[in-house]
Design a protein that fits this description.
Elements (H helix, E strand, L loop, with lengths): L6 H17 L14 H9 L3 E3 H4 L1 H4 L2 H20 L9 H10 L4 H28 L8 H23 L4 H12 L8 H9 L6 H32 L11 H6 L1 E3 H26 L24 H9 L2 H18 L17 H28 L2 H4 L5 H27 L4 H25 L14
Antiparallel strand pairs: 1-2
Helix pairs in contact: 5-7, 5-13, 6-7, 7-8, 7-13, 8-11, 14-15, 14-19, 15-18, 16-18, 16-19, 18-19
The protein binds protoporphyrin IX containing FE.
Amino acid sequence: MKSKITPSVAGPLFKRIGQSVRRGSNRAGTSGDPGKYLPKTMLFHFRPRRVPEEAVRFTHTWGLGGMAFVLIMLLFGTGLLLKLVYKPFPDMAYDSILMIQHEIRFGLWVRNVHHWSANILVIILFLHMQRVFFTGGFHHPRQFNWVIGMVLFLLILASNFTGYLLPWDQLAYWAITISTGMLDYVPFLGGWLQAVIRGGTEIGPASLLLFFAVHTAVLPAGICMVGLFHFWRVRKAGGVVVPLVPDEEEAERRRTPVFPDLLLRELVVALVVVAFVLIFSALINAPLDMKANPGLSPNPAKAPWFFIGLQELLLHVHPVFSVLVIPVLLSGGLLLVPYINYASNRGGIWFYSENGRRMGIYAVAAAVLFTAAGILGDAFFFDFTTALPMLPPVVGSGLLPVIIFTGAAAVFLMALKRRFSADSNEAVQSLYIFLMVMYVVLTITCLWFRGTDMALAWPWGK
Ligand code: HEM
């Protein structure tokens, strides 16, 4: 028998789903008319029927993965609308953005939603990654999902980067010129890689077309595929990581139905995110500078904010280290996080232990102090680039400062480990915190404390 699901039956239907879940039934839609239970059967392909109470608690995950999903949906929706009007050619791109903003009804709002969703997504993903790390969500059986997550993060960064150029204003043109220019410093492959990314030697018509195609076709397809894989792996691992309960009966008692307990919470988070982005975008416009002028570089010219930490590093350390060695080592280290031999696999507990929490506070303080001291010391007291002319630059302003800084950080972290008699989980966590905070300090410095000629300046005095 064919059945229709109308609004009038949706209420009782969902009530029945909730009830059957509460009773702990394990089979979906097997009694009575199967068609009537279609939403239920579909739902339970994506979700288990019951999840641990801990997984439902908002402060366990802060809903960050779900927020990322919602933002991606907003981006796809608004991106499709923008694509109807935008023209990816240097003589038309900027004007088509002006047209979207001034001549199309709600065009400005749609552009704002797209712009702010993309930027907020990077922050939300960074926080999601921290949530996963600090609740130990990368241990077995979730190791590979950490790697998939990093690939997703990379795809999202690439989307932001390629989208950055499309308005073809001064901001876009010079930010992309600066960041692709950093590749000049990569030995052997740098020049070739730069030409591939730019679609030629300079940022020009070919770059714009290439960035447009990658931004609107290649990356969205990649994000959909890798994203589905990510969700499937979460489901396969039995949902989000929670503390182990040794007794199976107790674990079963502490489970709660996905509908309504989890799904309603997720719905609330999704609605709050959408409302926030829509209101924020109605109040604050996405930036748009003058039309791109390849002959007039702004001063200072800065990379997009999510890469700006690297630009700050470039001011202090030889390019071979700041653009190649350090980023490659750090990304490799991040990929390997789940595959380190840890003292134990105690996932689901924030910061692993009380010891881990206290060590973390010391690591944050030390990273802020070390990085600020390095930046100020280099600016005002000891400039490695000029102070040691007898050494080749790659040694004098590269290897040497890196060894000094890493040595000082290593001594501090070893003293911390000894002081707290830390195990390997706590030690790795402190190192991770130290490096993450360092990158955040570099980013903030370059974003807000660099003025004309990239000299240090107060944000209000630039
Ligand atoms: C487009 C990007 C991403 C989306 C949409 C996404 C979405 C999600 C969602 C919905 C979950 C379930 C729990 C939660 O809400 O936290 C999750 C879990 C997870 N994510 Fe992501 N994620 C993304 C990127 C990342 C990144 C950058 C990483 C880390 C490098 C990562 C690693 C993980 C891992 C390991 C889990 C399982 C953790 C656990 O079981 O507690 N994800 N993700």
